[in-house]
Amino acid sequence: MSDTTAPFPAGGAPLGAGAHSAAPPRDGELKFMMTSDYHPPNGTLLGFWIYLMSDCLVFACLFAAYGVLGRNYAGGPTGAELFELPLVALNTTFLLLSSITYGFAMLEMQKRRQRAVLGWLAVTGVLGAAFLSLELYEFANLIHEGAGPWRSAFLSSFFTLVSTHGLHVTFGIVWLITLMVQVGKHGLTAPNRRRLMCLSMFWHFLDVVWIGVFTFVYLMGVLP
User: Fold this and answer.
1) Is the distance from CB of 202 to CB of 175 less than 8 angstroms?
2) Which residue of 3, 191, 207, 216 is 20 to 30 Å from 28, comparing CA positions?
3) Residue 117 pLDDT more than 50?
4) Does the reported pTM lie above 0.85?
5) With 60 as the cut, is the pLDDT of residue 24 above it?
6) Cα–Cα distances in angstroms (integers) from residue 104 to residues 16, 58, 87, 99, 123, in the given order
7) DSSP SS3 for 75
8) Start-to-end Cα distance in the chain
9) 210 in helix, strand or coil?
10) Is there a contact between 180 and 122 (Cβ–Cβ < 8 Å)?
11) How much is the pLDDT for 120?
12) SS3 of 5, please?
């Protein structure tokens, strides 16, 4: 008998103190009523996969727009003149390392080591914040040099694509901090483990997108 249901005995009230009043069943009929919330197995993960697929479409459109507009400089600076590959490579390293540390957090979650999970999540958040800091530094330098998004179609598409990814990382860090508070308060409960799994998929998805940005925008952008 599932612990989420309580049976009605024939001609009587439902069993269990948490059951609500209801009309008694007919003779010889057995009914069940919910006494706690029911969560379909893997329902959240399936819904989150669907969300990630929709996010893939968003980034696909932004990559397509950059592919069309990425060589329209309007007499302004080109990617080869603006991009600092060592800085971008360092930024990429921060994000890829954050994906590894989140993987360590998931391994510790499987072992039910709450403090280790919180420690690795904190390291992941620090690396994500370092990534955002370098990205904001790059944007500030470009705008200071007069290469803002209004300068050309190339820069408009560049800022739109890269900043959209940066916003996703920002939301991911906020989500990560919220989960750290939840895990610290309630422990590694089933709902918290499910939420950590969803954030893991989201974080690794952002890494994959950034690899595309690094290759398609920065590496190809420095080519003549």
Assistant:
1) yes
2) 3
3) yes
4) no
5) no
6) 42, 29, 26, 9, 10
7) coil
8) 70
9) helix
10) yes
11) 97
12) strand
